[in-house]
Design goal:
The complex is a heterodimer of chains A (255) and B (291). With 255 residues, chain A is an alpha/beta fold. Chain A is built from 8 helices and 10 strands. In chain A, the strands form 2 sheets. A 6-stranded mixed beta sheet of chain A has the order 6-7-8-3-9-10, sandwiched between helices. A 4-stranded antiparallel beta sheet of chain A has the order 2-1-4-5, with helices on one face. In chain A, strand 7, helix 5 and strand 8 form a beta-alpha-beta unit. Chain A starts with 9 loop residues before the first strand and ends in a 7-residue tail after the last helix. The relative contact order of chain A is 0.17. The model of chain A has no long low-confidence stretch (mean pLDDT 86). Chain B has 291 residues and is an all-alpha fold. Chain B has one domain. Chain B is built from 11 helices and no strands. Chain B is globular, with a radius of gyration of 22 Å. The chains are: A alpha/beta (255), B mainly alpha (291). The interface between A and B is large, with 50 and 46 residues.
Chain lengths: 255, 291
């Protein structure tokens, strides 16, 4: 149960991430530069930016895959360097990466065990999640026999197994057909209605416009703009989020 | 939650019981670590059960042993010893192949197939991943060994009517713990060497080298000049003496069982070496980039 406070559920403070550069003469490449961000309970937050803007790196820091060079990131007030910070999050990677020799049910049972769910709770949760992602009919089939859309829905199911308060989704509709996209969008909308916090990156700006409360647009490792979708559209005097995005990143449209 | 900002806003009690709830903080963390290690190990066991490696090796061992056992060599009436020797040799080779190949692919495949990302996005530490992989491989190899040794016991009993339960148990446990050292070494190797194939080859050469020459290194060192003598002696004292665990003669010749304290000491020796290799693997994996 979330205790209602104004504290952000996800907080990033002066985050800097440097990678050793592969180019001659350059020592480091700044993937993220002094990033500050806060996401509050119940929000659907869109994390946007062109390729190489630092979105995935920021997510990797939040998930503990990459240590920050400087600055800090917190989930539920816990530093992301602590594994316990990930107890109440669900993560869906851009592409589905699961043990193909397991069935959807087995993979969910495995992750349920990692979260320490009692067997009875796990069974109920697995049943309801498989129903939610419409994979009940294929629950005992190995994942290697699934289509791409089905695999993506297994990804979403594993992200929901711990009934997370915060969902981190990395391009959740990437590579899906229109029906698959619609289904994922519906699930995000449903989670939003349930009061879950969703932090997701996407290149599908139409989709972001539909489901997001607030967005941040990243460019070269820095936040270029942040706010509610309609406020950004108004302040940049554009008609769509896509136009705002292009304007912020100084993209010149062909005449 | 020592490293918090002091503003933790989530109630972790939620609708799931944190692992080991009701225990003190430290006990709960230990319980959670064991739970994670066991869960990761369970996936490794499932993987081995769903691959053909073990079944193929077991069927080959059984066929070769049964065929060889049915052949009459030089009208030798005590052929049962040769059959037992052959069967044990095949069990040793098969178990070594299963142990090394299974352990060598675990972490590289997790990285290559990127299954490591959803796993590490859960409340799991990298050390738990390493230990879980080790535990799964060791458990899976232990199950395979149990099947092999039951086959060996039944085969021997049908031939000479004897059931050397204590000796078989000692041989099985010593073999299993020796494979524990090999698996820990292979898991460490999987973080050092770029490809599982190179790790497989190097581990096989190293293990076979120890099994064949380990007990002779000190004798060879005696005949060398300095500094080669000190160098070889150092190697002799540093390498794990896996050859100590090869007690096949005990079963082949029907000798009496090893004193239980010696048996226990050998198991402890294996635990120390496996622990050192795993410690190295945990430290290395913690420093390694997962990207």
């Amino acid at each position: 149960m979330i205790l209602m406070t104004l504290e952000p559920i996800l907080k990033i403070e002066n985050l800097q991430v440097d990678y050793p550069s592969r180019e001659m003469g350059q020592q480091t490449r700044h993937a993220v530069r002094g990033l500050n961000l806060s996401v509050f309970p119940g929000e659907v937050f869109g994390f946007l930016g062109p390729n190489g803007a630092g979105k995935t790196t920021t997510m990797n820091v939040l998930l503990g895959f990459v240590p920050p060079t400087s600055g800090d990131a917190f989930l539920f007030g816990v530093n992301v360097r602590e594994p316990i910070a990930r107890q109440r999050i669900g993560y869906l990677p851009e592409l589905t990466y699961y043990y193909k020799f397991l069935t959807a049910e087995e993979i969910l049972r495995f992750y349920a065990r990692i979260f320490g769910l009692p067997r009875k709770v796990a069974n109920e949760r697995i049943d309801s999640i498989l129903k939610l992602v419409e994979l009940e009919h294929a629950r005992t089939r190995p994942i290697r026999t699934y289509s791409k859309g089905m695999q993506q829905r297994v990804g979403l199911a594993q992200a929901l197994i711990n009934n997370p308060d915060l969902l981190i989704l990395d391009e959740p509709t990437s590579g899906l057909d229109p029906i698959g996209r619609m289904k994922v969008r519906e699930i995000i909308q449903r989670l939003k209605n349930e009061g879950k916090t969703v932090f997701f990156s996407s290149h599908e700006l139409g989709e972001v416009e539909t489901v997001c409360d607030r967005v941040a647009i990243l460019g070269a490792g820095q936040v270029k703009a942040e706010g509610k979708v309609n406020e950004l559209v108004q302040s940049y005097q554009c008609s769509t989020l896509e136009q705002v995005f292009l304007k912020i990143l100084d993209f010149k449209l062909a005449a | 939650m020592s490293a918090t900002t002091g503003k933790t806003i989530i109630d972790f009690r939620h609708d799931i019981a944190p692992i080991g709830s009701g225990l003190s903080g430290h006990a709960s963390a230990v319980s959670s670590a064991f739970n994670n290690i066991s869960a990761i190990g369970g996936v490794v066991v499932k993987e081995l059960l769903r691959r053909k490696d073990f079944y193929v090796l077991f069927v080959l061992t059984a066929i070769i042993t049964v065929v060889m056992g049915s052949v009459n060599f030089f009208n030798e009436t005590k052929i049962v010893r040769y059959v037992k020797e052959l069967c044990l040799l095949l069990i040793w080779v098969s178990s070594l192949v299963i142990a090394v190949t299974t352990a060598a692919r675990q972490i590289p495949f997790e990285r290559e197939n990127r299954t490591l990302f959803p796993l590490l996005a859960k409340p799991v530490t990298r050390a738990q991943v390493v230990l879980g992989k080790f535990w799964g491989c060791w458990l899976a190899v232990g199950l395979a060994l149990a099947v092999f040794y039951v086959f060996f016991l039944v085969l021997g009993a049908t031939r000479d009517g004897e059931w050397p339960i204590a000796q078989t148990f000692q041989a099985l446990t010593l073999h299993w713990f020796m494979l524990g050292v090999v698996i820990a070494m292979t898991v460490l190797g999987s973080l050092v060497f770029a490809a599982p194939s190179s790790n497989n080859t190097i581990t096989f050469v190293f293990v076979l080298g120890i099994l064949l020459m380990g007990r002779h290194l000190n004798k060879v060192a005696l005949r060398l000049d300095e500094p080669s003598q000190t160098l070889l002696y150092s190697i002799y004292y540093v390498v794990p003496h896996l050859e100590l665990y090869d007690v096949r003669d005990l079963l082949v010749h029907g000798w009496s069982s090893i004193p239980w304290l010696v048996w226990l000491g050998a198991l402890a020796y294996a635990v120390v070496y496996a622990g050192l290799f795993l410690l190295g693997a945990c430290v290395l994996f913690k420093r390694k980039s997962v990207n």
